Amino acid sequence: MDLTLLHPKIVHLPIALAVLMPVLTTAILFAWWRDWLPNRTWILALLFQAILVVSSIAALQTGEIDEERIEGTVAEAAIEAHEEAAEQFLWVTVVALFLLMPPVVLKRKGAALTAASIGVLSTLVVFGFGYRVGEAGGALVYGNANTSAPTQVTAPKLEHDDDD
Predict the structure, then answer these.
(1) Distance between CA atoms of residues 134 and 164, nearest Å
(2) Are 123 and 25 in contact (CB under 8 A)?
(3) What is the pLDDT of residue 73?
(4) Rounded Cα distance, 64 and 70, in Å
(5) Which of 122, 133, 152, 161 is in Cβ range 3.0-4.6 Å of 96 for a Cys bridge?
(6) Please, what is the average pLDDT of the chain?
(7) What is the pLDDT of residue 27?
(8) Residue 70 has pLDDT above 60, yes or no
(9) Which of 154, 129, 133 shows the shortest CA–CA distance to 10?
(10) Residue 127 exposure: Cα atoms within 13 Å on the Cβ side
(11) Helices (DSSP H) in the chain: which residue ranges?
């Protein structure tokens, strides 16, 4: 199996989860607060955050493999920026996972809801870091970080036909 082809496929999962987690956690928190769902439903938030952490690790690992392939064609500073953003993203996802744990074990509803609110805020921070990683990765993919000088893109000339 050629692992160099996995990174572009894997990175979409953690980025998608980084976008969805604030929505999911907010919805669960609201439903829990309104007594529409039991507090054990918060385990879903924990499960999806754990998937986010694991998929972030996989994306980081496959990215390091792909780094060998693109060196020399992309500016080293752009690769470093993307890699650093990805490492920070991973650590923020781990912190968020730990911040999402207390609502599962707290018995008092008020304390659990407060802890869950902090967990929701942590998913917003993860979203912000995910945006940074995606932006840096997009610069690599779409050529904004090429080592060569930028090329001028011109619009094609359209022929005008006067025969109506």
Answers:
(1) 48
(2) yes
(3) 80
(4) 10
(5) 122
(6) 86
(7) 97
(8) yes
(9) 133
(10) 13
(11) 7-10, 12-33, 42-70, 76-99, 102-105, 109-141
